[in-house]
Amino acid sequence: MLGLSKKVRVASVRVLRCWRDRALILLGFWRAFRSDELCRLQVEHIQARAGEGMTLFLPRSKGDRDNLGTSYSAPALQRLCPVQAYLEWIAVAGLALGPVFRGINRWGQLQVTPLHPNSVIPLLRQTLQRAGLDGEQYSCHSLRRGFATWATCNGWDQKSLMSYVGWKDAKSALRYVEAARFFAGALQAPAVREFSAIPLPDEVG
Q1: Residue 2 and residue 58 in one domain
Q2: Which of 5, 15, 23, 102 has its CA 20 to 30 A from that of 127?
């Protein structure tokens, strides 16, 4: 009986982590966030409506020299939706305040403190490895680079990409765009078109 209880507990912890990791990866990808930005998200700074979209506020960010904070938007999608993934995660975890993405201990208890940015990389790699991919090829910039590739494949110009991601330095953006153009040819067009519903920056409120 004790063995069965342990298996149930382990399974419950894995399921909880899956809800968290799915939200982290989808939100990180579609918002082109870095690891540190994901780890600084607070529930009270996010407004999300299923089927509509979400707004996220970061009180401080890398390019915010005046510490005024930065607001971001993300649309709801029919598939691989960051909004739905976020809403489901906070509902399952029972989160109303504090860090969105937290550690989960072996007993399935949520930590009070946020994930450390350095822990996002192994989390991402483990998830990819479970999906049969070579996780070692991915880094803390992979989600942002992946979105830049997707946007480039869908015809976004550099100005639109900079506006959406929040880049103010064209040189920084160009590094991602050039890498995106290199990898874009490896993507199959049908797979890319499935998510072409995401609006350009001018269409995002």
Answers
A1: yes
A2: 5
- C-alpha–C-alpha distance, residues 121 and 128, integer Å: 11
- Exposed (0-12), middle (13-18) or buried (19+): which is 23, by Cβ within 10 Å? buried
User: Taking Cα atoms as reference points, which of 115, 118, 167, 171 lies closest to residue 144?
Assistant: 167
Q: Give the range of the structural domain holding residue 41, as residue numbers without chain letter.
A: 1-116
In whole angstroms, give the CA distance from residue 191 to residue 155.
15
- CA-closest candidate to residue 101, choices 53, 56, 164: 56
106 occurs within a structural domain:
yes
Distance CA 87, CA 66 (A): 31
Position 199 in a domain: yes
How many separate domains does the chain show? 2
What is the DSSP secondary structure assignment for residue 101, as one 8-state letter? S
- Only one residue has tokens 């409506």, namely 49
Give CA–CA dist 75/94, Å, rounded: 23
Radius of gyration of the chain (CA): 18
Q: Residue 23 corresponds to which amino acid? A: A
Are 32 and 99 members of one domain?
A: yes
Are residues 61 and 152 both part of a single domain? no
Burial class (CB in 10 A: 0-12, 13-18, 19+), 95: middle
CATH number of the domain enclosing 86: 1.10.443.10
Question: Mean pLDDT per 10-residue run, the chain (205 residues)?
Answer: 48 86 95 94 98 93 73 93 97 96 90 93 87 78 85 84 82 68 50 45 41
